[in-house]
From TrEMBL:
It is an enzyme of class 2 (transferase). This is DNA-directed DNA polymerase. InterPro entries: DNA-dir_DNA_pol_A_palm_dom (IPR001098), DNA/RNA_pol_sf (IPR043502), DNA_polymerase_A (IPR002298). It comes from Dactylosporangium salmoneum. It holds the Pfam family DNA_pol_A.
Amino acid sequence: MLVALVPSGAGGLLRPLADDGTPAGPERFVPDLAGAVAEVESRDRPRWLWASTAEIYPRLVQRGVRVERCHDLELAEALLLGAEGAWGQPRTIAAATARLAGLPVPPDPPARAAEPPGLSQDSLFDAFDAPAVPLDDLLAVYQAQRRRIEALPELPSAHPLAPRAGAMRTLVAAESAGALVAVEMGLAGLPWRADVHDALLRELLGPPSPVGGPPARLAELGVRLNEALGQRVHADSPAELLRAFARAGIMLRSTRKWELEHVDHPAVPILLEYKELYRLWTAHGWSWLDQWVTGGRFRAEYIPGGVVSGRWATRGGGALQIPKIVRRAVVADPGWALVVADAGQLEPRVLAAVAGDRRLARAGAAGDLYAALATEAFDGDRAKAKIAMLGAMYGQTGGNAAPALAALRRFYPTAWDLVEEAARTGESGGLVRTWLGRTCPPASVSWREGFDEPGAEVESRGGAKGRARGRFTRNFVIQGTAAEWALVLLARLRAALAGRRAELVFFQHDEVIVHCPQEEAQEVAAAVHAAGDEARRLLFGDTEVRFPLDVTIVGRYSDAK
DNA sequence: GAGTTGTGCGCC
DNA sequence: AAAGGGCGCACAACTC
């Protein structure tokens, strides 16, 4: 059963639908949207049909209302447009409606900027404006999406077996479920102890400057850097540093850490320490704390499908780049625990499952895939096995990877062919898809390395740009399919946790954190393992490959792993 | 002064 | 000759 929902003022319009999207009852206006949704949800557990989970669902969750399932029309629209060769076209209901009618298509509204918590809290309680879209349009777009899924064209895909439509239905459902998780997780926030964070900063940086300048330890390093170089430099300016080193007779191409590490000069260790602390101060210092942590929680906004590969992005606070050192401040509430789960070696396992390479799949059944590879094909050299796998997935061909890659190619030709084929497709201007059918952007709309120049599609066939494109499509299949596995895990885990006090509080590509009462922690850990198994079965059926999760129950994030 | 690009580095 | 994918963010340096 489906129920279509369009917000309007503080209330909204609801209409029950049959599974194919045709009306199964009258439309009704409800003055209290959250209350009405709660009532229908507990009675019928329908799949909610709405334009955008990110726009609508926060208002419900803020009022304590959660739903089990939805169909997010905008996310589905984006997936379908990609599959139909119209990647990046506007995805709103208004745009989709205009396309159906053959009318000019309005562009999507620009993305909102990240809003620190506090500034935006009130607006979450604001009523909606007048109904943004007619409910009939919602129905028409949904019905059309169902037809379009059934009529999907054949495109290069990693998935040799599942029917296109079946895979896409799974993908749309998973993407929509992910959108529910994203809203709930963003509002829950990651438990964050500002006092612990502050103590950490003082320990590493010294006391903050009362006038807003660099903290004591950083200022001191700046002085020592000047002394070591024999001149005054602005340590944050790469250009100045290059000139200063040049005067000392050291020619550098850049001031990157890995380049400096090979330079023998007394200023280098000072500069490296300065860079590390400077970064901590600017990116995760006191102003970050003031801006993003409120009420003991770091609240990020998660954006499902925000990365073209299907990975999530975040807005605000750099939630996917929390430095290891700062994770000390992520502490469970008293009496609660953090269940931290990490899928180890996810991408090579995905390659093993996707390629259907029997030999690689056997290695993927092991707890340590690289070690298994090493035993079979790399004379026990685990490091070499890892270089080979990473090189194959990322497109590295030179340097010390070459001999390792040769061994990989010889021992695992089926997997090798899969990534090579993806790369060739990209280099020649073609499109690739993930296992469930997410399509990569065409070369003409890629925003990297000048793909968006006129004629870039032709230019990209060969030359450095073409090879860059090949590396992108090669990796897209693996990264995107890994994102799908993680998305399904997240959806299954959410379902398993429903009704408990446990809350999903963090998700980062292949890692998830649940905050729960200590007495629930063991069951939550079991639920995470079960969700991983379900994700494997749903995507890959009876594959031999395993996707082991490293699950730890800790009081603070930094104690995991 | 505002906006854009480049650099560098954090995470996966 | 060498050639690793995806991001977000902050700052410097640049353009207009």
